[in-house]
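Q: What does the assembled structure look like for these inputs?
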Amino acid sequence: MKSLEVHLRALRDSGRKALVPYLVAGSTPDWIRHVEAAVLGGADAVEIGVPFSDPMMDGVVIQEASQRALERGTTLESVCEELESLDGEIPLIAMTYYNLFLHYGLERAAGRLRQAGLSGAIVPDLPLEESDEWRAACDANDVATIYLVAPSTPTPRAREIVTRTQGFAYATARMAVTGAASDDGEGPRVAATLRAAGDVPVYVGVGITTPEQAKRAASYSDGVIVGSALVKLVLNGATTSEVERFVGSFRAAID
Amino acid sequence: MNSNVMGPPDDRGRFGDFGGRFVPEALMPACLELEGAFLDAWSDPAFVEEYRLVLHQFAGRPTPITPLPRLSERLGLQLYAKREDLAHTGSHKINNVIGQTLLTVRMGKSRVIAETGAGQHGVATATAAARMGLSCTVFMGEVDTERQELNVFRMELLGAKVVSVTSGSRTLKDAVNEALREWVTCVNDTHYCIGSVMGPHPFPWMVREFQSIIGSEASQQLDELGVGAPDAVVACVGGGSNAAGVFAGFANLDTRLIGVEAAGGAAVRSGSPGVLHGMRSLLLQDEFGQIEEAHSISAGLDYPGIGPEHAYLAAAGRAEYYAVGDDEVIGALSLLSVTEGIIPALETAHAVAWIAREAGGLLPKGSTVLLNLSGRGDKDAAQVRAILRGEA
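A:
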């Protein structure tokens, strides 16, 4: 079992709900300080978005942050270099589109992620059927491959994904790209399907905007992912202490 | 020569190393459903008959083959044009949208969405949607809504909603992104009517099949004219649907297949393998794998990729791809207009420009050449006037 899987299963078995904030690497000059602030605020893992020119699964907030990051010259390599300066034991998970890894070389990319302290990867445009090569590269480098499940995923397919995902299964709460929402969407149903399908931790994401929503999501899952709401705060010029407080408010809500 | 050069892709939707299905999990069930629905429909004689009947009664097929005697004499070639410009809505785009909207109805969906660059595919989709009683939303880059303002109005006149896309480069690539994002939210009742031989499996194959009527008609018509198999078939290539459609009729013959890209969007000439918009193909990208913006005088060729089957045909050496610069295109448009009385679309003018440039070069004197005249130039008149007057 990969390091990330061992870690996140132990977390679940200890009874703690996982909080996974998402930040776009390079969207501000001090983004690495925001990662630290998220950890201080109570994150159990941090999802690191590596900016891509054509983020087809992302809504306007993450598109904007990605655009800013690219304009600042952010690359997969520069993200990995900056992450190497981080101290600490909190797992980091890369989230980006397949072309960046493909272009870097799959084996080399997986190795580079691990070297930079990224122990998992989410690639939203890489469904099960296309992921064998990437998965093999990750297997050779102790990088967990994390798959998403959507409300449209039929149950037999969801079961198959649960047997393949490593670390956690990412339950997307709605048929939408990333961005704000005001209700639970189909999160409860998707999470219930995944929990019934196997023993892997189930985290809910997409549209979790407030601590109250996170609290509800945590009640029917093992963890929550908070992306656009936090990225929006950062785009609006949040200080590190504001990031820490924001993440802390989600921590307090789900504990 | 291989007996079935342009056959179906493999089980994973691959043409050689290209193609596949690189989409978010949310869209996988819809892609699988579409693959099943298309396979079922395309093997159903009643569906194929209806598709052909609508193309005949509504879209004006078959389109003629026109000999081009004056241009032939000037260039020292035997030139013929397949007149897709005479199809309803003014380009080959109608062939694909009739097929896809019939399939939409068959799948029980009530709405289509589409991306468009020049506006030709948007207008065609709005037209077919109106004909089939479907609601329609078209995504178009903000830059393109400005340079093709009249097409925006035509789509609206046909009852479609046009969404101006302001993300990224605000052209075709971003319109595709936005259409994919929209599709995630409405996949239950909405079909994404992709306009070219691109995107995730089964789109590249399905769109080629719907466009292959161009090639099958043309090869039969050339036989009837006593011309037989031409030495070369030449078509412009953005995503590559008109080229794929005409190539399909000649791929198993001893005919050269020639695709002409815009120099600023030449995925085969200047691109490298990558994954974008659900497919593995040849893409314009920087050293880090970020997709680059294409730049062309023609909005319809402003795309940084190419359909995966073209990437395969190029790799296999079955088709040849060349690039033509913006500076050659206006002259070619004028040349065809004054010699043959046909004003071609700027996209098509790329193919004309290549033929004019290579007559006696890569196209030996006396060659028999079929030009796929993919679209008419009415939509480009204002832009061409501005360029000729030195205003643009």
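The CA atoms of residues 146 and 165 of chain A lie 5 Å apart.
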